Structure formats: structure tokens, C-alpha cells
Amino acid sequence: MSEIVLNNILSLGFLFLWIITLIGYQMIKNRWDGGSLVIVLYIIYAVFAIMTLNDPLFSIAFNQLKLFPYIYLYSMMIIALSPIIIHHCSDTSEIENPHTKILYILTFIIIISSIMLIPSLISGTGSGLISIFTDSSAGKEAYLEQVEGVEDSGSTIRNLPAIIFNSLTDITVFLFFYFLTLEKKNIWILSGLIFSFIINFLICISQGQRGGLVTSLLTLAGGYLLFKQYMSKKVKKISRHIGLFLSLLISFPIIVITVSRFDGETGGIGGFVNWYIGQGSLYFNNYGLTPGGCRNGDRTINLFKRFIDSSTSQNFVERRDKYHNMEINDNLFSTFVGDFTLDFGPAGAFFIFVIFYSSLIRLTRERKQQIKLYKLLLLYFALCISLQGGMTLFSYSDVSGNLRMLNCLLLYAYLRYHEQFSRAFPLQKNN
């Protein structure tokens, strides 16, 4: 059997496996939620992988595919999705009021940090933002400028408002949709969070970041689908219409940046798009289990590792130079699973996934009609890992990603132990 035929059989098998998974998932309960979105995206990525394998130019980038890496990848992705699958089977219909002001304090911090980014957005990238839509090469130039600036990053604090803003982007989405579930909605808070979304989109566009735009859009979609069952019919209808409009609006700069990045390349824009979207599972199949080395957590837990190892790479430029002998690194996509196998090896990554997601299942399982907000936060975090990294890499990597992860876990700890503290020491009203 020829290599081309075998590769197509294996990649088609991987595609059909996800199609069967989607059918089974929806048969459990015919409700479209965050897990449904993740599986649909995995199906889309698998389709683009097949198209890439049959491209005469881009197919030469891959070696012969094997069966076991696909089995491993599917198993790890299902493990990562297991808390969402269990939540999919539940019948919770209401979020328990956490009775805390920390959510409003965080919202205030997010809005203020967004406002503080306006001067730098206007002075540093205002003209660049316009040129993205008027100059066919501006998107590529903006991206290259950003990459060049990374060499001096990672060791100093340069822009505190930007650091705060970026570290709270996922929490911003979580808070927005939680506030939409409340009976009494504060229009000023919701408007402020929407303003933060707009700032985030503008920053991504000005820096030529297609990935940032897509990730932001997927996170919003995932947040909506997770909170949808707790919203009123009116709010759900309005949210769907706004979401559709936003998707169409954001697709325009994504197309412009894509044309800017790949126009004139030998493979053509279509070929590069297929390769960009479909490469994750293919590179994982080739190198995810045999990367030719181990990064020992240099990417996935970069911030935490710096406290115990001074030789930890400060940015991706240093890391790629440090591990240049490896068959694959973060310059290519291998999915969020690949990031962990490159950092800890296949056995270590499997052990981490089993322990972490088993803990998440235990911490998020709910048998009542009401679900606690801190449990929903953990489910949202698990959903973001699969949504944001199913095509590319582990999105909570490096300093910025580790800070986002740390903020989610700190908020979880506060919400959980605030409830326990309030129960142990209830406030008594004076007579």
C-alpha cells in the first residue's frame, strides 16, 4: 500500500472518529454546548488536515502517518474534554449567587486597564491599524515587528496595564456571560466589558495576529455556549444575533491579514490556509511522541519554572535556540497535547492529564439544580484549554499564558473558600 493511500486512510479514520464522537455526544443529550463546539472544531481541523495531505506542495512537509499517535491524541483530547462531557449530562439550570464583590472589583480593574491602553493603541499602532486595511503588506510587517520585539522580552516588566489586561482576558469573557445570566443586569458593567473586548480585538488587528483574533472569537463562543442554559430566552436570542454580527465583522480583518501574510507565496493563499489549520494533528502524528528531546516544562510552566531554574528560557526565541536539536518545537503546531508531550514526554503528559482532569471532574461534579460559580469557572477553564489549543498549542504557556492560568485558579480559590468562610462565620444583622 502506498504512503499516500495509507496517510489518507489514517487521516480519514481520525476524522470519522470525531464525527462518531459528535453523534454520540449529542445522543447523550441533544443540547449544543461548549463540548459540541470543540468536537465540531476537531472535525474541521481533521478535514483541513486531509486537504493538506493531498496538496502537492504541503504534503512533502509530513512523513508517513502512524496509527498509535492518532489513538494517543484522540484519547488525550477526550480526557481533556471529560469534565465538559460530564457537565453536558447534568441538568443544572441556575447559578448559585456567590455573594461576593470580588467579581465587580475585577470588572473595574479590567475596564480601567482597557482605558489605560488607549493612548498606546492610538500613538503606537493607530496608523498601523488603518494601514492593515489599506496596505496589502501591512499585516505581514506588523506581525514581523512583533516577532522581532520578542527577543528582548520576558525578563522585564514593560507595560503593566497591558500585562494586567492580557492576564484577565479569559476572566473578562467569563464575567461578561455570568453578568448576562443575572436577573438585574448592570448596563454600565456590560458596556465596559464589551469595550474591553473591542480593545482586545483592535490590539490583535494592529499586531497582525490572526491567531489572537480567532482565539478571542472562539473563547467568546465557548463562553456563550457554557452559560447559555442559564440565560433567559431573550438574552440568548440577542447574544446569538450579536455573535453572528461579530463573527462576520472579525472575519474581515482575519482575511485581510491572511492575504497580507501569504499573498505571493509559492503555495498560494488556499494552500497556506489549509496547512495552517490542518497541521496540528499531522505534526503531532509525526513528532508528538518522538520529538527527539524534552523541554522539561520550559513552555507549559515557564513562569513557575523560572522560580527554581535560572536557565529557563525567557522567550520563544531563546527556547527554540536552546532546543534546536529537537525534531519539532513551538514554531509548528502540534495541538495542546503536543505541547505537553514535548515538555514532559508521552508518559509524563498522560500522567499529568489523568491526574489533572480527574481532579477537575471531582471538583466540578454537581448533582443539584444549582451549580456553584467556582465550579463553572473550572469548567470554563477546561473548555478554554481544548477550544484555544485544539488547532495550535497550549494557550496557557509562557509567562503571559501562565499568568492567565494563575488568575483563573486564584479566582477559583477565592470563590470557593469565600463561600466556606461565609458559611462558617455568617454575618449577623444588628437588631
Widest sheet: strand ordering: 1-2
Give the biggest beta sheet.
2 strands, parallel
**How much helix is in the residues?**
over 70%
What proportion of the residues form beta strands (DSSP E)? Answer: under 5%
| Gross geometry | globular
Mind explaining what this structure looks like?
The protein has 431 residues and is mainly α. 72% of the residues lie in helices and 1% in strands. The protein contains 17 helices and two strands. It has helices at residues 3-28, 34-53, 67-89, 102-116, 118-134, 138-149, 160-167, 169-181, 187-206, 210-227, 233-262, 268-288, 302-306, 316-322, 335-364, 373-389, 398-424; strands at 94-96, 370-372. A two-stranded parallel sheet has the order 1-2. Helix 4 crosses helix 7 (160-167). The longest helix has 30 residues, at 233-262. The protein is globular and about 70 Å long. The N and C termini lie far apart (85 Å). The model is unreliable at 138-142 (pLDDT under 50).
